[in-house]
Design a protein that fits this description.
- Strand 2, helix 2 (39-47) and strand 3 form a beta-alpha-beta unit.
- The chain has helices at residues 12-24, 39-47, 55-59, 74-79, 98-105, 133-140, 151-180, 185-205, 211-218, 224-234, 239-251, and strands at residues 4-8, 29-33, 50-52, 64-67, 88-91, 109-114, 126-129, 145-147.
- The chain has an eight-stranded mixed sheet with strand order 3-2-1-4-5-6-7-8, with helices on both faces.
- The protein is of the alpha/beta class.
- It folds into two domains: 4-147, NAD(P)-binding Rossmann-like Domain (Rossmann fold); 160-251, Orthogonal Bundle (ProC C-terminal domain-like fold).
- The protein starts with a strand and ends in a 5-residue tail after the last helix.
- It is built from eleven helices and eight strands.
């Protein structure tokens, strides 16, 4: 069991990881590198973590290091750190393969993980490859963990982490429309968010039913659900979403 974890690259994602980890397990020690940023000190104060002056000082004190730098920075960041054998180095960098990580983290073991910001509230579906018990147990503190058999599967699933952000745009558009139609803004926001949560919870709680079947039960002939859905389909409303998924998948392919 991991009792102490280090985070290098303490930026946007790391903020949510620290909040989620310290909330889920107050006994877990979280060490943060304050290299090139004072953000780590603020997080340390807010969530009772420990800020250390540089990346190496963090890596020397833990058996599991999360490196959450930008994809273009991870190689240089890892090359500058001396890792030790039996250490796990978990990269959250999109599109950076295990084969890219191995030479820069050796003799440590590289792991890929893709949590999302709802890790802060324990609801992140985190992608993991390859399977490793300590890393899996750590990320289970932040929500569900989905282990993949190979990097092709991991890469395809990683696209959904981009979709997660797009959902906020869709929700915001619908909230604005609802408020513009005369619903008080606070009620419009709550109504849209609660309705969306209800749809996802219904799907999760009825795994024996396909999502298409759940939709069919709602989109009855002559009803408003089917009427609106036909308008979306007539305008190829879902094609843009599919095109965006394809574009992100292409962008995340490793350069050969």
């Amino acid at each position: 069991m991991i009792e102490k974890v280090g985070i290098v690259g303490v930026g946007h994602l790391a903020s949510y990881l620290v909040e989620g980890l310290r909330t889920a397990d107050p006994n877990l020690e979280v060490l943060l590198s304050s290299y090139l940023s004072d953000h780590a000190e603020r997080l340390a104060v807010d969530f009772c973590a420990t800020a250390l002056p540089n990346n190496q000082s963090v890596a020397e004190k833990v058996d599991l290091v999360i490196v959450s730098t930008r994809p273009g920075d991870i190689t240089a960041a890892c090359e500058a750190i001396s890792f030790h054998a039996d250490q796990l180095v978990v990269s959250t960098a999109a599109g950076v393969c295990i084969s890219d990580l191995e030479p820069v983290v050796s003799p440590a073991t590289p792991i890929r993980a893709m949590p999302i910001t709802c890790a802060a509230i324990g609801l992140s579906p985190t992608l993991l490859f390859p399977d490793e018990a300590s890393a899996r147990t750590l990320f289970e503190l932040l929500g569900s963990v989905h282990v993949f058999k190979n990097e092709d599967q991991f890469a395809a699933a990683s696209v959904i982490t981009a979709y997660y952000g797009w959902v906020y745009e869709l929700l915001d558009v619908v909230v604005d429309w609802t408020a513009a139609a005369g619903v008080p803004p606070d009620k419009a926001r709550a109504l849209v968010l609660e309705t969306t949560r209800g749809a996802t919870e219904m799907g999760l709680n009825r795994p024996q039913e396909s999502l298409a079947d759940l939709l069919d039960s709602l989109a009855t002939p002559g009803g408003i659900t089917r009427y609106g859905l036909e308008k979306i389909r007539d305008r190829n409303g879902f094609e843009a979403w599919l095109a965006a998924l394809d574009a992100v998948a292409d962008k995340m392919k490793p350069v050969t």
